[in-house]
């Protein structure tokens, strides 16, 4: 009898429609929305004319969470709240309107209304507390960048998700930018031997963002290279934060964190067949060195597709082990910087400290 109960519980957690009713949408809740991306994903999921991957989903409720220590958190929350509440509410034909997102006053109230949750609060220092409530309620969970502000909290979130057997993941939207995502199997590049990634590095980042300020570009690095980094060195100057990362198979990737001057996000990729730019964020894969700019812009669209599949019961697309390896790389880079560029091996963050 116990085995039957366990199987029923597992099916309830992993079912493509957590509510078990194919005719009703998967109900999604938003926890914190001082990050503009929350509005973007409501646009994808609540569109009354949604088709394909986006059909069968709806953001039903949102809980506004602000951080007194995070600049403009309250102001941004009110701004995005107004936009969110106005989505699909003014069509001439009533059938082209969507039910409005319900604003709630607590996490508990949010969890009662939804099947899955997206955390979009900017302050990563609060994500462990927020994620704990969601995971203990056994709701599928996505945490917008960053997973957490420090490695210890990232580890705690992933270990709790594993213990509760609840699918949970996090990533930057840069991971699913078509030009970046398409480089691992680019026919003109072939097998990826290495890459040079570049992007912004905010020298004025708040305390909540300082550890993860290079995360967009490091996610791009992992999108292209895959997991397997074993050691890192970091050099810091007033104009650049430079990280060199070596993979277990000898491949090398670098990150140039731009502190001054023009800021762009992309990479140069080196392969056994050729060398190519990864193009422009939000656009497609370059062909013969030509970067498309008149194609469909997919700044948030790529991640939105992965989220839709996940909320309908799909597998976690980015393994927890890879996410924690990224945090280990960032931690090793900090240690290297403090040691004047010494080579620092990555730690397995899932192993207990000695």
Account of the protein in words:
This protein folds into two domains: 2-171, NAD(P)-binding Rossmann-like Domain (Rossmann fold, 3-Layer(aba) Sandwich), CATH 3.40.50.720; 175-294 and 318-345, Dihydrodipicolinate Reductase, domain 2. It has ten helices and 13 strands. Helix 2 packs parallel to helix 3. The strands form two sheets. Strands 12-11-7-10-9-8-13 form a seven-stranded mixed beta sheet, covered by helices on one side. It has a six-stranded parallel beta sheet with strand order 3-2-1-4-5-6, sandwiched between helices. The chain has helices at residues 2-14, 37-45, 73-86, 107-113, 127-136, 151-164, 178-181, 215-225, 301-311, 320-338; strands at residues 26-31, 57-63, 102-103, 116-119, 140-144, 168-171, 192-200, 229-236, 240-247, 252-258, 266-271, 275-277, 344-345. The chain has 354 residues and is α/β, with parallel strands linked by helices.
């Amino acid at each position: 009898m116990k085995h039957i109960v366990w199987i029923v519980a597992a099916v309830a957690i992993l079912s493509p429609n957590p509510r078990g009713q194919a005719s009703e949408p998967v109900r999604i809740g938003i926890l914190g929305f001082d990050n503009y991306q929350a509005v973007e994903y409501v646009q994808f999921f609540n569109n009354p004319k949604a088709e394909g991957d986006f059909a069968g989903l709806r953001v039903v409720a949102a809980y506004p969470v602000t951080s007194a220590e995070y600049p403009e958190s309250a102001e941004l929350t009110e701004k995005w709240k107004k936009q969110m509440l106005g989505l699909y509410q003014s069509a001439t034909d009533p059938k082209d309107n969507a039910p409005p997102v319900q604003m709630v006053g607590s996490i508990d109230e949010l969890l009662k209304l939804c099947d899955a949750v997206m955390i979009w609060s900017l302050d990563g220092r609060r994500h462990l507390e927020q994620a704990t409530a969601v995971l203990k309620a056994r709701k599928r969970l996505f945490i917008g960048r960053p997973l957490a502000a420090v490695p210890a909290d990232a580890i705690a979130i992933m270990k709790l998700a594993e213990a509760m057997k609840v699918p949970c993941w996090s990533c930057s939207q840069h991971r699913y930018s078509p030009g970046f995502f398409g480089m691992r199997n680019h026919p003109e590049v072939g097998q990826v031997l290495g890459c040079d990634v570049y992007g912004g590095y905010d020298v004025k980042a708040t305390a909540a963002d300082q550890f993860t300020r290079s995360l967009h570009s490091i996610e791009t690095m992992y999108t292209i290279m895959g997991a397997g980094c074993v050691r890192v060195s970091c050099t810091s100057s007033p104009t650049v934060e430079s990280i060199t990362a070596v993979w277990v198979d000898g491949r090398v990737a670098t990150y140039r964190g731009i502190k001054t001057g023009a800021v762009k996000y992309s990479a140069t990729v080196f392969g056994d067949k050729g060398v190519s730019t990864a193009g422009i964020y939000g656009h497609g894969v370059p062909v013969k060195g030509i970067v498309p700019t008149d194609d469909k812009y997919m700044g948030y669209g790529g991640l939105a597709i992965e989220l839709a599949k996940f909320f309908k019961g799909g597998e976690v697309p980015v393994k927890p082990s890879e996410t924690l390896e990224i945090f280990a790389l960032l931690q090793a880079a900090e240690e290297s910087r403090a040691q004047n560029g010494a080579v620092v091996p990555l730690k397995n963050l899932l192993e207990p400290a000695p």
